[in-house]
Amino acid sequence: MIWGGIKYFLTFEFGLVAKLCLARNRLMRKFPNQILQIGIFASIGPTTHFGRPLGTLLSLMYWGTGSFRTKPPASYSASTAKHLEPHLISGRPAIKHYEGFLPDNDSRFVFDFARHAIKHGADLRTYTSLDSANHNGEDWELRLSGSGMGNVSAKSVINAAGAFYKEVSVILGVTTKTTIAISKGIHLVLGLRLTENYQALAFFNDRKKLFYVFPMGDRSMVGTTDIRVEDPKTAVTKEDRDAFIKQLNAQMELETPITAKDVVSERSGIRSLVVQEGGFAEIQDNYELSREYVVEVNKDLSVVTILGGKLTDCIDVGQETVRELSKLGHQVAKLKNWCGEGSQLRKGEFYQLIAARTDSIVAERIADGIWRRHGEAGFEIVGTGTLVELIPGLGITEQEIRHIADSEMVSTREDLLRRRLPVQTSRSAKELAANKPLEKLLVELGL
Q: Do residues 402 and 380 make contact, with C-beta atoms less than 8 angstroms apart?
């Protein structure tokens, strides 16, 4: 999601909401296809912090805070809410506001920045670790291992290791005033759709904490949790899964309750939440910790450390980092179009091309996916000949898979099927193994 965070109104972080809304609006302008507007349909029940009148007021305030750049919010009576989303519990009204949504996934979105960086001369290395670092008074000598092994010299080092920033800081010999607390969140993808419309559902669990039901292609993804952990290497446990499914069933009226058998894929991730100097992370509720980011600089060693933050304000983080590098004496080039999707002038032409080359039932789905992920490069990707949806329901073709495998730094199947395409996030391992044409293609590509 690319969102301003209406829930931060509940913790009175009005400045954070304003900054995130502005950041969201900017990303939505730069990525009109990769980031789509999606309605957040919030069911108001006994565990919700507000009733319908206050919820309506908050959604209107939020819309105004975002400079009215999204579709206007709406408020629904209990009967109308039930009509629009039959799986909601009867007797509960709802409110709806709009946010930015990534139809593919966050890693695909991040890779778009990496692709632009390569275009402008950046040297990117995947599956590479920093083993040691030495500062001679002027320059850094960094020893790397893994796929990008070797020695690298640098004037400055940016520590953007997220939850692993402490390990990198130790190697670099720097300390920070700010620290982080680590929060674990899980998402489960179900083999069915729980929403009648292409929108997200929002609920408050029995602890009055938000969770969501998102559309994931032709299926639904549910999440997330917010659990304090010490180790950033996490996984979905049976306890996590069962507890979340219990909350989901408690907030919806389903003919057949969801069980673990309905889960086709799952993932566990972590959030890095900043704790300012003197903070007491060990006694704070994760929801009370700030979603702000902090950039700290060690001028003597020329090290910039980034802590916390959200995907939504990624450009803000980058721009502040560049400003700090400038203060350290770096001449930073002012690049035009260093991120974003570029021209949309040939979009209609591309959709017409796809319509003429494949079955009308899947043409729009294929065109949507290729244009969203590649823009005008889609003309070269599809080449000539018939286009066939290789993974039913996802609009992904053999031509696109070959292009990604050849040109997008793919080393493993997971790179291709999860980090570049939304395949492993919406299809089970059993389903993928049964797709013989896909399996044949992956073997041919050496994956």
A: no
